[in-house]
Amino acid sequence: MNMAYRAFCEAFFAALDKGDFETLGAMMDPDFVCHEAEGLPYGGAWRGIAGWKALCKQIVGAWAGVKAVPIEFLGETADTIVLRLQLTGRSRRTGTAFDTTVMELWRFRDGKLREIVPYYWDTAALVAADTP
């Protein structure tokens, strides 16, 4: 495994935990996009650092105490890495807690993060947690 990608991911999550959007923006390709599942409260394509900030606001607005913690760094190619995250939190709407995993495909270009494609283990459980 290319340890540079793992180190990149760890630095990205550290900046995210601090709310350091300046560092996050510097780590992103100008054409960055994150594709969230349409069935989630924040589904859609989120582009650039402005889109990432808006996505984070939507996620925090939907889930109290939300945490995404890397638990495995898996396969990679010359411009990708796959990681698995533990995702926990509680619906702000219902108070229902959730605990699931997400597999994410990260694509890079010229050392910058170009794309994140999350694959949720159970989007139905997240929707159910948020449905009164």
From TrEMBL:
UniProt source species: Chelatococcus asaccharovorans
Q: What is the lineage of its organism?
A: Bacteria, Pseudomonadati, Pseudomonadota, Alphaproteobacteria, Hyphomicrobiales
> Which InterPro entries does the entry mention?
NTF2-like_dom_sf (IPR032710), SnoaL-like (IPR037401)
Top-rank taxon of the source lineage equals Bacteria
Name of one Pfam family that matches: SnoaL_2
The record places domain SnoaL-like at 10-115
Could you tell me what this protein is called? SnoaL-like domain-containing protein
